[in-house]
Design brief:
The chain has two helices and two strands, in the order ααββ. By secondary structure, the protein is of the alpha+beta class. It has one domain.
């Protein structure tokens, strides 16, 4: 594992669980992250009525 892999696991991956913990109807999608070399982190949050 490189530094970017550790950075992703430590800082980025938990974001999905944190969003679910806030409210199960809140969903997050992200296709880019700075730690993986992209130009930004593109957080897309949606509210889903179940």
């Amino acid at each position: 594992m490189g530094v970017a892999d550790i950075g992703y696991l430590w800082n980025c991956k938990p974001d999905f669980a944190l969003v679910q913990a806030m409210n199960p109807k809140l969903k997050m999608r992200r296709t880019k992250t700075l730690v993986r070399g992209d130009d930004c982190c593109d957080f897309i949050h949606t509210w889903e009525d179940i």
